[in-house]
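TICKET: design request
STATUS: open
ATTACHED STRUCTURE:
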């Protein structure tokens, strides 16, 4: 929880820092580019002014004698611009130099005159590489030798070393001997402005970061609060007994509300399962307790009489019967437990139903005779299914013994095997006591019996008994489902019942990987 909050906060802060970086870099680069364009325009404009001023002097030419632009006043210095042009050019505030066709500087503005001769020379050497569409940069040093010049730049607070942005503008041939003009301006101030921008951005950054961290931490806490609430409520559901509790579901319908609703559904399912399991355990223990009580009574009886007495044998025989009954119950429970686990080891193979049903029928005839019933099998169509012969036999036998158990003397039990295109239906119809419509939904549930009191023999009671555990139909249904089939029932109280197993014919079978275990909704009735 705490770590999710920390991670959310860190992610938010990282995103913000990233955004700030991108924004700052864009601003910085954009600002730099616009300043550069401005400087270029400015330097170019100065060079153009110088050319236009030069042209003004040339326009004063007479038809036969062009007005001179340069003159040699000092042979050591070489050609310089005529005083008239010099006066005009002195109005240019920044760096400008005029170069004649010998490559010599014929005029340097006041700004240019502050540079060391080496720097001027460097600018001259880089000038031929420049053309009107390019700009250059020159690292310059201001003159430190001439004290007047030095005072001039120091007085204006200019640095000794500086960077100049320079542009070159070629002169029109009519302006000969002037060949080109170089305009320039110091990039120092603009660099400084950019550095200041960066500085102020860096100064604000920690503050923005801190504020965003606090906001993010608060927001993350707010977002996670409902989750913490769900966790606390879940923590309160400690065991099976507190499964009746439900989480509070907000009406907002947001993710948290949906999560709570889903968890509630899950708790509901768990509650049903737990309840079923509890009842199942109670029922199973109860069913085991009865034979144990009977056995104990019988063993005690056997011990209380002289050895070898006839009564002793009767008591032991009864104890043995109860033991067999208990073994049957444990066997059924084990089968169901394996089903639930999905470990029903069916030996699937192609089997003919005809001999199995025939065999079951013969057993039914013997049992039916003893019970005074008429057993018949009017239809026995042949069918092949993919399945486990032993399990299917168990299933059919369950249905037949139930039919015999729950049909009074004189009734009939009828077996039939009918096949359709894709399935085969094995039906067991009886004219017995039937099942009430209200009971039908429960008959496949474990330990469910229509009349529990009568179906179990009382301790000490002897003779014929209906004595099922209420597990037979649950097992039968599982067997049918494990074969990709179904077990259905149609019944009316006092009129009889028809149980039908429908199985897919071989080739049509879709065997479930593991049939879903039914809810252990065992009836609540007490004995
Ligand atoms: P039991 O071992 O008690 O027969 P089953 O699971 O086989 O357990 O059957 C569950 C209950 O369904 C029975 O106790 C009985 O009440 C009812 N039942 C099953 N088969 C029939 C039938 N053919 N006729 C009437 N009731 C039946």
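STATUS: resolved
RESOLUTION: sequence designed for all positions
ATTACHED SEQUENCE:
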């Amino acid at each position: 929880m705490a770590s999710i909050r920390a991670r959310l906060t860190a992610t938010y802060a990282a995103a913000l820092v990233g955004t700030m970086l991108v924004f700052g870099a864009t601003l910085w680069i954009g600002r730099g580019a616009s300043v550069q364009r401005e400087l270029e325009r400015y330097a170019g404009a100065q060079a153009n002014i110088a050319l236009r001023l030069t042209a003004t002097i040339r326009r004063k030419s007479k038809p036969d004698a062009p007005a001179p632009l340069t003159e040699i006043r000092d042979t050591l210095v070489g050609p310089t611009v005529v005083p008239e042009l010099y006066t005009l050019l002195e109005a240019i505030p920044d760096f400008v130099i005029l170069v004649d066709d010998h490559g010599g500087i014929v005029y340097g503005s006041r700004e240019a005159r502050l540079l060391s001769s080496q720097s001027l020379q460097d600018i001259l050497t880089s000038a031929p590489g420049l053309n009107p569409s390019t700009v250059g940069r020159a690292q310059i040093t201001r003159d430190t030798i001439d004290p007047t010049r030095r005072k001039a730049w120091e007085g204006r607070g200019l640095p000794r070393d500086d960077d100049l942005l320079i542009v070159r503008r070629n002169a029109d041939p009519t302006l000969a001997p002037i060949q080109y003009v170089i305009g320039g301006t110091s990039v120092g101030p603009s660099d400084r402005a950019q550095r200041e921008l960066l500085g102020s951005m860096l100064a604000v950054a920690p503050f923005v970061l801190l504020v965003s961290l606090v906001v993010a931490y608060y927001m993350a806490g707010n977002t996670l609060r409902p989750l913490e609430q769900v966790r606390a409520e879940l923590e309160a559901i400690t065991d099976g007994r507190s499964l009746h509790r439900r989480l509070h579901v907000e009406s907002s319908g947001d993710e948290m509300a949906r999560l709570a609703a889903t968890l509630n559904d899950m708790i509901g399912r768990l509650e049903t399962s737990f309840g079923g399991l509890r009842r199942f355990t109670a029922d199973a223990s109860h069913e085991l307790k009865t034979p144990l009580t009977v056995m104990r009574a019988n063993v005690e009886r056997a011990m209380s009489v002289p050895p070898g007495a006839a009564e002793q044998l009767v008591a032991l025989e009864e104890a043995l019967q109860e033991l067999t009954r208990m073994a049957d119950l444990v066997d059924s429970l084990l089968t169901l437990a394996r089903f639930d686990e999905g470990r029903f080891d069916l030996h699937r193979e192609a089997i003919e139903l005809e001999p199995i049903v025939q065999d079951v029928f013969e057993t039914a005839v013997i049992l039916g005779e003893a019970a005074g019933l008429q057993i018949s099998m009017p239809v026995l169509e042949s069918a092949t299914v993919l399945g486990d012969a032993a399990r299917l036999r168990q299933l059919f036998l369950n249905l037949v013994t139930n039919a015999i158990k729950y049909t009074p003397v004189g009734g009939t039990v009828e077996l039939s095997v009918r096949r359709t295109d894709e399935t085969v239906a094995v039906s067991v119809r009886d004219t017995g006591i039937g099942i009430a419509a209200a009971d039908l939904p429960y008959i496949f549930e474990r330990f469910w019996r229509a009349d529990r009191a009568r179906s179990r023999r009382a301790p000490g009671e002897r003779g014929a008994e209906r004595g099922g555990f209420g597990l037979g139909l649950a097992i039968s249904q599982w067997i049918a489902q494990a074969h990709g089939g179904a077990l259905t029932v149609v019944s009316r109280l006092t009129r009889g019942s028809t149980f039908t197993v429908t199985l897919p014919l071989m080739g049509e079978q879709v065997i479930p990987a593991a049939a879903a275990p039914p809810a252990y909704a065992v009836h609540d009735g007490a004995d």
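CLOSING REMARK: The radius of gyration is 54 Å. Confidence is low (pLDDT under 50) at residues 454-466, 513-527.
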